Amino acid sequence: GAVVSQHPSWVICKSGTSVKIECRSLDFQATTMFWYRQFPKQSLMLMATSNEGSKATYEQGVEKDKFLINHASLTLSTLTVTSAHPEDSSFYICSATPGGRQDYGYTFGSGTRLTVV
Amino acid sequence: AQRVTQPEKLLSVFKGAPVELKCNYSYSGSPELFWYVQYSRQRLQLLLRHISRESIKGFTADLNKGETSFHLKKPFAQEEDSAMYYCALTGGNQFYFGTGTSLTVIP
């Protein structure tokens, strides 16, 4: 079945530094990937839609200069949290659907726990 | 190891019939379980979580630790319930999703 690998699974960084999170589709091509964020005791929140070869589409309220998304290939999307601050500490999850079709169902990565100290 | 299993990829029921979407999990600690729903052309949204024990849109889900299940149920399905449903588990630093069940409610 379709597998999405997310790396790292957890990371601790100092305030002011940048952190890169990778999302890879292992056995299918993903022209579109999605990045979610989850705050404690809240639902997943869609941050942005990553499109291969073009700019990402950000949801309202998400700072595109802070959360840089690069989707340089059909199997890899990266999310870089720039100049991280403690309030950026959260759980970040990516997902993709084979063929970009919603009716195929989404496959989710196992998430990245970011802690900014 | 598969942490969350949704055995049915597709499920069709008639309007007014009871519906049950199955979810089984494998986790050694004390997980928190969720059901998410995605309606056609809409975003993924939280349907319910086991710790709140609420009923949303007529859906309920009870955590059965003995059977390690968290099945989603509704006594009378409605056409607007047609959607993709994902069971999810969080434990430690990880978040695990099932592969999803596409529910179609037939008028």
What does this protein structure show overall?
The complex is a heterodimer of chains A (117) and B (107). By secondary structure, chain A is an all-beta fold. Helix content of chain A is 0%, strand content 50%. Chain A contains no helices and 11 strands. Chain A is globular. In chain B, strands 2, 5, 6, 9, 10 and 11 form a 6-stranded mixed beta sheet that branches. At the A-B interface, strand 9 and strand 10 of A face strand 9 and strand 10 of B.
What's the helix and strand layout?
The complex is a heterodimer of chains A (117) and B (107).
Chain A: E1 4-7, E2 10-13, E3 19-25, E4 32-38, E5 44-51, E6 57-58, E7 67-73, E8 76-81, E9 90-96, E10 107-108, E11 112-116
Chain B: E1 4-5, E2 10-14, E3 19-21, E4 24-25, E5 32-38, E6 45-49, E7 60-61, E8 72-74, E9 83-91, E10 94-97, E11 101-106
Parallel strand pairs in B: 2-11
Antiparallel strand pairs in B: 1-4, 3-8, 5-6, 5-9, 7-8, 9-10, 9-11
Largest sheet of chain A: 7 strands, mixed
Classify the helix fraction of chain B into a percent range: under 10%
Spans of chain A of 5+ residues with little confidence (pLDDT < 50)? none
Radius of gyration of chain B: 13 Å
Oligomer: heterodimer
The helix count of chain A comes to 0
Mean pLDDT of chain A: 87
Unreliable runs of chain B: none
Q: What do the pLDDT scores of chain B average to?
A: 88
DSSP strand tally of chain B: 11
Shape of chain A: globular
- Total strands of chain A: the figure is 11
> Major sheet of chain B: size, sense and barrel closure?
6 strands, mixed
Strand composition percent of chain B: 35-45%
SSE order of chain B in H/E notation? EEEEEEEEEEE
N-end to C-end Cα span of chain A: 37 Å
Order of helices and strands of chain A: EEEEEEEEEEE
Greatest contact between two chains: A-B, 20 and 21 residues
Shape of chain B: globular
